Amino acid sequence: MNGLMNGPGNRQTSGRYGVYYAPESGGGLDRFGAAWLGRDNETGQPVSPALPDSLSPDEWRAATESPRRYGFHGTLMPPFTPLPDVDEAGIIERLESLAGALAPFDLAPLSVRVIGSFLALVPADQARLGEVAEACLRAMTPLRVPATAEENEARRTPGLTPVQNRLLDEWGYPYVLSEFRFHITLTGRVEDPDRRARLADILSGLSAPVTGRPRPVRELCLFHQPDRSAPFRLIHRARLGNSKENS
Predict the structure, then answer these.
(1) CATH number at residue 194
(2) What's the pLDDT at 226?
(3) pLDDT tens, residue by residue, 156-192
(4) Is residue 216 part of a domain?
(5) Strand 184-185 vs strand 118-123: parallel, antiparallel, or unpaired?
(6) Of 18, 78, 179, 233, which sits 20 to 30 A from 92 (CA to CA)?
């Protein structure tokens, strides 16, 4: 599917773009993500969350405030600001070219995991995802405005390893290439370990129908954020292999 919101002729380049994995539209994982975060990736419209009795609406809103802005996705190429001479059509063209050179594959079974202090869906194996993420990074980086020294320093959080600091300096982000770890974020930071464990149990139950088995990856998804205060929306799906038979 091309041009969900902005067609290839649209020259809009304001804001940021990211290359993400997002579930195939209308599938079970897509419906789960929309119901959990309370927002549809493509339309941006609110979705009534499906909450168990054990989770209050206030607790749900607090837990999902951050990931709701970014949408239900797994990052392949972190968000970037395009160069002044790069228009949206050029970004889509580059993504289509990249997708056409990559074969479809299956995402290993997902499960709910704790990463630091937040919860995410994590696949059992990430080897192929790492290769695709590297291809996205190398193909799309020439279109981005390089990170400034001030931006890099803002991302240089305590605890980064020497390798992560080097990647931050080279690529503007510390968790790429050898440090890439794919995940689909479900919550923001949940500092209380008991509350975090309870949310993990709730999410494991809610996600059970869509986890535990491989899932097809047939597209690279382009998300757009008009400005830093706005949520990201999925605006374009580029088919891997550019073939309809890979549906």
Answers:
(1) 3.90.1140.10
(2) 95
(3) 998 999 999 999 999 999 999 999 999 999 999 999 9
(4) yes
(5) antiparallel
(6) 179
